[in-house]
Write a structure and sequence with these properties.
The structure is a single chain. This protein has one domain: Phosphoenolpyruvate-binding domains (TIM Barrel). It is an alpha/beta fold and 267 residues long. It contains 12 helices and 8 strands. An 8-stranded parallel beta barrel has the order 1-2-3-4-5-6-7-8, surrounded by 9 helices. Strand 7, helix 11 (221-229) and strand 8 (234-239) form a beta-alpha-beta unit. The model has no long low-confidence stretch (mean pLDDT 95).
Length: 267
Amino acid sequence: MPLRLAPSFREQLAGADRALIGIWACSGSPLVTEVAAGSGLDWLLIDMEHSANTLDSTLVQLQVVAAYPITPVVRVPANDAVAIKQVLDLGAQNIIVPMVSSADEARAAVAATRYPPEGVRGVGSALARSARWNRVDGYLGDAAAHTSLTVQIETAAGVAAAAEIATVDGVDAVFVGPSDLSASMGLLGQQTHPDVLAAVDTVFRAVTAAGKPVGVNAFDPAAADAYIAGGADFVAVGADVALLARASEALAARFIPASEGGARASY
């Protein structure tokens, strides 16, 4: 019996009447990811760039998330055609490519998601979960309709090229990473520095003018609110490991006397 795939992140963004709110899954634990998947949030980012996630753990997380009404997005470790091919073949319909700083890099990411002649994605649908082992009718011809590509701007060069990046055909959305952006600007760790905020606003304006959705990472609630008010179409507002870290620290602060000298985070 032919199978149908879930709507892509591109389709979810197009149909939204508010900013879509997401969470990062960095622990590599399918159980933790399943807990987050049932949270009621709109989208979940399985991160392979800054976490312990592997192809195996990403596959299992995609499988457990499929049972919940949340849209999974996978951030690949790099703008690499092999990595992108493997993650797509796992059945990831929505990917984020980090560190895209030029239109040429954006075009390379698009090519990696498309089968020839439009791109360079290797053909293995009969062997892969992406087409449910050829149980999705017409997958090879319709693959681009089932997938979405978000590119991440995280450098000063990317900010300067934001308008060109956003107009690349096949780029469905742009995601801004203030952490690496602040480092690129010589303001390491200062994600809310006025110059960084101005750079994010520059990207917002350029991407919106190109008619594409724009999102941002903002774990600080006040910053997230400001970005939403500023026109963000999607925002990542937390991460599984960060939530556990802060909540466990709060328990320690509540129940263990400070005089005993336990570890206390200042951030």
